[in-house]
Design goal:
four-stranded antiparallel β-sheet, Rossmann fold, 40% strand, 17% helix, 559 residues, alpha+beta
């Protein structure tokens, strides 16, 4: 039976952003079941799923109250990421707009333990991603740092623990009544990530790469001291308390695993777990593998299986491969090798750069593999998952050594028999695609750059405020010219397809217009696809269909 792979892959659904109620067997989550992001509820006792939101906008980041009678979530417009926070009563379905300032973002709302207050982060007063609290119908500013705050949690009805900064982060706690803000923990040349909070025993789990790998620690607020809980030579994230055990996610050889530590015993609960939630006695998690779209599992039962029936048994399972790069280091990559290889290989570059490619659901990689293309996804220097030293190898050198790691991924592809090499990437991967096409122009037969940036000067001027702070730390301004593809467009020889969302706040659409105008002047082969109702990610099913179809047609035509 013939099937339309573009249609089916574009409509594969995803579950994310789990939030459970501590005192009610109720789980909230995001699901794009109907073609866009909405909030859903899962009632564990009835095993019933209820759709909560509707309309054309995306609704994301749900948080259930501890009693399970209220919920908050964010809404933006056409992907602009300026989320506004909505509070909803689950019994009478009345909504209250807690924020109504579409020129600023409001992120990650969290209920206080007694459900009377909501903390969130925002740039509403000109500082990137600072803490605010909503109480008694009013919004109060809590912090005014220059560094952004992305993770935070209530310790009590008066205290919030949070992580400040991007690198060399600090764990701090603020008293919202007195305003006292004190430093709890900071390590030199290291990052700290926030884990779970045990409010009864006044303890906080965290992970830190103080000694190279992200290890799990615990901070005791009563004693004002900390200790290591679990250490090894792998990256460990998101530790959470569960009975007398600790759960955490571990990354090894391209795959995530949910693990449980009881005293000195470590056991694996499941592989492919990218997110989990503990609520009461319940455990819910999202399982994602290269051949398993994000499925929702609650208490060991599959609640949502997002794998379309026509794809079962046909999907390509990714594997881990290794190659040597320019300085002799070994680079790990995720690879898709189709059953009927057309001798063409796509080097698919992940974004970030503080991120990684892994054995998780990647619809575009899967689509390409099902069309006969091999796909190599390199974890270039600067990627997470390989220790602090490797993650910081690209400091002040973006578009330098990491680009060479990508080029050497192409050399690896050629060494295994590839006859055509395509470079493709999104976000920072789109930027590296532009760099590859201009700085190593003879290596590629085609390029696809999705929501990338191409001019460091204009990107730094116009990008989102928290990214501006990141780039001020990560990149050397003296390299802006040499590392901007726009100034070397004349070197491009391969046909290139640009894809972008018109409302992108991270890599503004003006970036791609600079490239297309220059290529047009030079008479080079290129194509351009702009979505007027999208931002930094192409969310809507219909738009993803157009994008995937365009990519496959472009590659089939030019390679």
């Amino acid at each position: 039976m013939s099937i339309d792979l573009v249609e089916i892959i574009a409509e594969v659904k995803t579950v994310l952003n789990l939030s459970g109620s501590e005192k009610r067997d109720l789980l909230a989550f995001n699901w794009n079941r109907d073609g866009k992001w909405d909030v859903f509820l899962y009632y564990l006792d009835e095993k019933k799923i209820q759709k909560l939101t509707d309309g054309k906008d995306s609704y994301l980041f749900p948080d259930l109250s501890n009693k399970g009678d209220l919920i908050v979530y964010g809404k933006d417009r056409d992907g602009d990421e300026n989320y506004q926070i909505i509070l909803r009563d689950l019994y009478n379905n009345k909504e209250i707009m807690l924020t109504n300032d579409p020129s600023h973002y409001h992120l990650s709302p969290r209920f206080s333990p007694d459900d009377s207050m909501i903390v969130f982060s925002s740039n509403r007063d000109g500082k990137p991603s600072q803490l605010y609290v909503w109480r008694d119908g009013e919004i109060e500013e809590l912090t005014r740092w220059e560094d952004p705050i992305f993770s935070f949690e209530w310790v009590s009805n008066k205290e919030i623990v949070y992580i400040k900064g991007i690198y060399e982060t600090e764990m701090r706690m603020i008293n919202i009544s007195s305003g006292e803000d004190r430093l709890l923990l900071k390590f030199d040349n290291a990052e700290i990530e926030l884990g779970d909070v045990d409010r009864d025993n006044k303890k906080i789990l965290f992970s830190s790469n103080k000694d190279e790998w992200y290890d799990i620690g615990e901070y005791d607020l009563s004693a004002m001291s900390w200790r290591w809980v679990y250490r090894n030579d792998k990256e460990k994230y998101d530790p959470g308390y569960y009975d007398n055990s600790i759960l955490f996610i571990e990354y090894e050889r391209g795959r995530y695993a949910l693990k449980k530590m009881s005293r000195d015993k470590i056991e694996t609960i499941d592989y492919g777990v990218v997110e989990y939630e503990i609520f009461g006695r319940n455990i819910a998690y999202v399982k994602s593998l290269s051949d398993t779209p994000n499925n929702l599992i609650v208490n060991n039962e599959i609640v949502i299986d997002n794998t379309p029936e026509p794809l079962k048994g046909r999907l390509v399972r990714a594997e881990t491969v290794y190659y040597k790069t320019f300085d002799g280091r070994t680079i790990e990559a995720i690879a898709y090798f189709p059953r009927d290889w057309n001798r063409k290989t796509v080097i698919n570059i992940h974004g970030g750069p503080d991120a990684n490619a892994a054995d998780i659901w990647s619809p575009l990689s899967q689509l390409l593999a099902l069309h006969g293309y091999a796909v190599i996804m390199p974890n270039y220097r600067g990627s997470t998952g390989y220790g602090r030293t490797f993650q910081h190898l690209n400091d002040k050198d973006l578009g330098g050594g990491d680009l060479l790691d990508v080029v050497y991924a192409g050399e690896y592809a050629r060494s295994i028999g590839s006859e055509k090499i395509i470079v493709l990437g999104a976000s920072y991967g789109g930027y590296l695609t532009g760099m590859a096409l201009t700085k190593a122009s003879d290596k590629w037969d085609a390029g696809v750059a999705i929501v990338g940036f191409y001019n460091w000067y204009t990107e730094y001027q116009n990008e989102a405020d928290y990214l501006k702070r990141y780039d001020s730390i990560k990149m050397d301004p003296e390299k802006f010219y040499d590392r901007s593809p726009i100034f070397f467009v004349e070197n491009i020889r391969a046909p290139v397809l640009f894809i972008h969302g018109a409302n992108d706040p991270r890599c503004p659409v003006e970036e791609v217009y600079q490239m297309s105008e220059k290529l047009k002047e030079l008479g080079r082969t290129y194509d351009l696809l702009i979505f007027p109702d999208e931002g930094h990610s192409i969310r809507k099913d219909e738009n993803r269909k157009k994008m995937y179809k365009k990519i496959i047609e472009f590659l089939n035509r030019y390679t």
